[in-house]
Specification:
Length: 188
């Protein structure tokens, strides 16, 4: 896996390489989440899975920007999409952005984003038997949710292959992630 590739600055969101770079980032973050799970670092794994999903959303937002600009209701919202949403994907707006992506054809994205945000909460708050600060009562529930989010991420990235500039780094990283995810799925 070429982790050096994601250490480079991201291409500008206006370039074709941006989507591929964000997809690679998503795959590497997901792979790190699996590694953290194998070492028993569930909170760190949850955070990495969240980051993977966020990078994936950034790729989708750029890929579908033209369609999103058409469903945006105001000029201010269009400007915000181009200037803030695509390059940053603010955590506080991930639900709304996922709902917009659903409007342009990405069914089920809202629910997966909600699960990713639950993992984000778990990363900061840890297990919570009362479920007041986290949706996960214990490490096992969070670990299972982390693996499920990664499996969904893999599926969705594979669906995008024909539509993006796919390269050898993406293919190798995807294959490594699939293998690691299958192994982690058997362990939990």
């Amino acid at each position: 896996m070429s982790t050096e590739t994601i250490e480079k600055p991201l291409p500008k969101p206006t370039t074709e390489d941006y989507v591929s770079a964000r997809l690679l980032e998503a795959l590497v973050e997901a792979y790190l989440a699996i590694r953290f799970l194998s070492e028993g670092l569930v909170r760190n794994a949850a955070g990495k899975a969240f980051q993977a999903w966020r990078a994936f959303l950034a790729a989708l937002l750029r890929l579908e920007l033209d369609k999103l600009l058409q469903v945006a209701k105001t000029e201010e919202e269009r400007r915000w999409l181009m200037d803030k949403a695509v390059p940053r994907v603010p955590t506080t707006r991930m639900v709304a952005l996922s709902q917009m992506l659903e409007e342009v054809g990405y069914v089920g994205l809202y629910f997966t984003t909600s699960a990713a945000l639950d993992l984000h909460d778990y990363q900061y708050n840890g297990p919570d038997p009362d479920m007041a600060l986290s949706k996960f009562r214990n490490r096992e529930e969070a670990a299972r949710a982390t693996i499920e989010l990664i499996k969904e991420l893999i599926k969705r990235i594979e669906e995008l292959k024909p539509r993006v500039k796919w390269n050898n780094d993406l293919e190798q990283t995807l294959n490594q992630l699939k293998k690691a995810s299958d192994n982690a799925d058997r362990r939990t």
